[in-house]
Amino acid sequence: MSRPLVVLVGPMGVGKSTVGQLLAERLGTGYRDTDEDIVRVRGRSIAEIFVDEGEPAFRVLEKTAVHTALAEHDGVLALGGGAILDADTRGLLAGQRVVYLSMDVEEAVRRTGLNAARPLLAVNPRKQWRELMEARRHLYEEVATVVVATDGRTPEEVTQAALDAV
Ligand code: S3P
């Protein structure tokens, strides 16, 4: 059996890294995460890059990270929640098996609302989540070949649903 490259997209906190690692185990392949690649290459945290260099600079780094990872990696690849904002990055995903892990706004607030370490959600989590989802949902749907809803599901259940779907 050839090893599929599965790309995971979806909002922050949806469980891309947990599900991605479980999925990689089940497929007998490796797991990679573009946020981790950026931190390693840059030698600074995502929050530090956002604060000191700004979001546009982060998006440029992210585009390069996605491009490099797609060229180098043949396992499961998780992208940062905002990677799909960039049209070139969305173009890179054409022809890939892309699983969109979705969740509704209330689930997002429950899972991440009190986590001030996430730079995009520091002020009013519910309002910011609503705006974020409205701005991004159609972009996740545009790149996805499969959508897996995570609301009320454990990471194991989500992993199984993703395996059944790809
Ligand atoms: C972001 C999501 C984060 C990280 C950065 C920006 C976003 O990744 O790339 O904080 O714009 O949604 P995770 O989705 O892995 O948390």
TrEMBL record:
<feature type="binding site">
    <location>
        <position position="35"/>
    </location>
    <ligand>
        <name>substrate</name>
    </ligand>
</feature>
<dbReference type="InterPro" id="IPR027417">
    <property type="entry name" value="P-loop_NTPase"/>
</dbReference>
<protein>
    <recommendedName>
        <fullName>Shikimate kinase</fullName>
        <ecNumber>2.7.1.71</ecNumber>
    </recommendedName>
</protein>
<keyword id="KW-0808">Transferase</keyword>
<feature type="binding site">
    <location>
        <position position="17"/>
    </location>
    <ligand>
        <name>Mg(2+)</name>
    </ligand>
</feature>
<feature type="binding site">
    <location>
        <position position="118"/>
    </location>
    <ligand>
        <name>ATP</name>
    </ligand>
</feature>
<dbReference type="InterPro" id="IPR031322">
    <property type="entry name" value="Shikimate/glucono_kinase"/>
</dbReference>
<comment type="similarity">
    <text>Belongs to the shikimate kinase family.</text>
</comment>
<comment type="function">
    <text>Catalyzes the specific phosphorylation of the 3-hydroxyl group of shikimic acid using ATP as a cosubstrate.</text>
</comment>
<keyword id="KW-0460">Magnesium</keyword>
<feature type="binding site">
    <location>
        <position position="81"/>
    </location>
    <ligand>
        <name>substrate</name>
    </ligand>
</feature>
<keyword id="KW-0479">Metal-binding</keyword>
<comment type="subunit">
    <text>Monomer.</text>
</comment>
<keyword id="KW-0963">Cytoplasm</keyword>
<feature type="binding site">
    <location>
        <position position="59"/>
    </location>
    <ligand>
        <name>substrate</name>
    </ligand>
</feature>
<keyword id="KW-0418">Kinase</keyword>
<dbReference type="Pfam" id="PF01202">
    <property type="entry name" value="SKI"/>
</dbReference>
<feature type="binding site">
    <location>
        <position position="153"/>
    </location>
    <ligand>
        <name>ATP</name>
    </ligand>
</feature>
<comment type="pathway">
    <text>Metabolic intermediate biosynthesis; chorismate biosynthesis; chorismate from D-erythrose 4-phosphate and phosphoenolpyruvate: step 5/7.</text>
</comment>
<keyword id="KW-0067">ATP-binding</keyword>
<keyword id="KW-0028">Amino-acid biosynthesis</keyword>
<feature type="binding site">
    <location>
        <begin position="13"/>
        <end position="18"/>
    </location>
    <ligand>
        <name>ATP</name>
    </ligand>
</feature>
<dbReference type="InterPro" id="IPR023000">
    <property type="entry name" value="Shikimate_kinase_CS"/>
</dbReference>
<keyword id="KW-0057">Aromatic amino acid biosynthesis</keyword>
<dbReference type="InterPro" id="IPR000623">
    <property type="entry name" value="Shikimate_kinase/TSH1"/>
</dbReference>
<feature type="binding site">
    <location>
        <position position="136"/>
    </location>
    <ligand>
        <name>substrate</name>
    </ligand>
</feature>
<dbReference type="GO" id="GO:0004765">
    <property type="term" value="F:shikimate kinase activity"/>
</dbReference>
<keyword id="KW-0547">Nucleotide-binding</keyword>
